[in-house]
């Protein structure tokens, strides 16, 4: 079997690794000149690290990752709203949580894919996926003019521009959720903070999160509500962020000011409504192309990693009837990913709320939350079992 994967991010690379480990011939085609590393970092929750361990990648990733033990919620005025013991989640699922920069994660995955005998092709933007009237197989047409017809096409191009999703559904229109994230990564810097504590600051219509990666590095995300999408002006990112967060608690302002401008990105946050159809002919969607949860879900990369395991298992079994194989994969993944997408939206509506009175009640409610029970509920929802 020959498989072509469109997209060289977390979803595509993990699919490639899992398939190569099962002896399947895989080519990954990435549109960019180098593997994509959009976003500063990611928390790999234990449902993801459990699979990475099964793929033989966990030790390599640990060498580049932090080990968060606590998630502390704080108001924009500095009041502690509660703390969640990440160890409860880890223990219930049976694997550690890790924090890692997206570039380090991609580098580990790319190295593992190539070592497993996979073929990675940069500078291969896809123009279209074409149906063939003579057979139930689609072909990929690249900007270069190259046309290929593999036995299986895995669409892992992400949420914003997915030819695979357009082929399967007839459209690819993500939903703008009326908030933006500036994301940044700061390395080789002295921090006045605990390297094992994730900080989550809540304000009115705004949120600031800090995730340590090591004693001297961290990534952060600054989010605010907006009504419309406007042109990005990278040279003004520091000023834009500081205008919102300059009076928020320490260490937010020093983190912003110490982060080099070229290490900051601005993202207008979109997701997709859950869908029931993930495949057509020989094309199957995975990761954000199939289900694109908001960052508030905490599970975007993790669910992509789960997809990789399940699609590799499906294709390495009896795959003589692709439609049955794809249906089995979709049935295994659709309900869980839909629930995560919808819960991410619900949480975003709570965090990114512009009503001061709503936010006051929200913060008071947080102070009385049973965070141990919350951690157990999160583990139950994320469990791969």
TrEMBL record:
Stored Pfam families: FAD_binding_3
SUPFAM superfamilies: FAD/NAD(P)-binding domain
Keywords: Monooxygenase, Oxidoreductase
Signal sequence coordinates: none
InterPro entries given in the database record: FAD-bd (IPR002938), FAD-dep_Monooxygenase_BioMet (IPR050493), FAD/NAD-bd_sf (IPR036188)
GO molecular-function terms, A-Z: FAD binding; monooxygenase activity
UniProt-listed Gene3D superfamilies: FAD/NAD(P)-binding domain
Segments forming domain FAD-binding: 2-318
PANTHER family given in the database record: MONOOXYGENASE, PUTATIVE (AFU_ORTHOLOGUE AFUA_6G14510)-RELATED
Name this polypeptide is given: Flavoprotein monooxygenase acting on aromatic compound
Protein species of origin: Leucothrix arctica
